[in-house]
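Throughout our pipeline, every protein is held as a single compact record rather than as scattered files. The record that follows is passed on verbatim for readers who wish to inspect the format:
___
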Amino acid sequence: MLQHHGHDVVVVGAGIAGLAATAALVAAGRDTVCLEARERVGGRLLSAAAPPGALDLGATWYWKGERRVADLAARLGIDTFEQPLAGDTLVQDATGVRRLHGNLLDAPARRFAPGAEALARALAAELPADVVRPDSPVTAIHRRATGGLDVRTPGSVLHAEQVIVAVPPALALARIDFGSHLSPELVRLAEATPVWMGAVAKVVARYPAAFWREAGLAGAAASRTGPLQEVHDMSGPGGRPAALFGFAAAQAVGPDFEQAVTAQLAQLFGPAAAEPETLHIQDWSGERWTAPPGVHHLADHSLFGHPLYRRSALDGRLHWASTETADRYAGHIEGALTAAERAVTASLTKQATAEEANSCSR
């Protein structure tokens, strides 16, 4: 039997955007719940423990000028450090491997000492009990005849005055039944918008030591032959844990992928790179709650931050808050926080207007 509950706001997704929106709404005194399909929070903020730190399998960096993520990390007490930049770059093509002077791939950036996922875990830990509800995939969002929206999960129906969708739009359209309530223009846009990282496999190789630094290399490499198209140093503060990571097209992942990766790393960085202590392969295209079917075909990144995402849907009650919908820093953690901030403002404004109208009608 389905349970029925009423709330001011329901947030869909407990990635960093959904958690930030939930925290802001709770702080504003709104009765808010955050529904997460996975059993964990964080979404594309995912880190593997690697004492004395962690290895990021999703989001890794933030950059100068991204004040929201910097302020959040400082408030939560999460230590950050500068991405190592010193050393030369390697370029790989059909003719072999060339060494170029200086780090030509990496820009000054900062990383999170305990891993990016620590942001999400710390933010969720601050919320009251039962606000974040894992293992609760949203299956439908429909208008209510009496006003507001119904948000359905396999075990419940939540009645909400406002809904914030903090998952990629293409994923939302693939996994959530909106009936015929969204405009055809919005449906076409959402279905065509790429999912950041959705068609990518991220590979992280951990080693006993950052041996490439002793050779004067930055750990940065660009390749035209692959499978890794680019490689970066993912070592922690002081070089511990020592690691390299790279990006590959998710479609390249197959039975021989691991062997091809270690062979490529050895070609780039020498025999010591052939045998990592651990090799993590995170294929985001295979994540049901990140990537919709056909994610590999979504390639028009100019749709990120489209003006339609800044307009509330469903009579002004549904708001978009994933990083893909941000008009600035789309694809970054900062973009997710920017979109969440916008969605919260829209939600609070709409609810305050409704409350004022109800008060005047009495």
About this structure: Residues 73 and 119 are 7 Å apart (CA to CA).
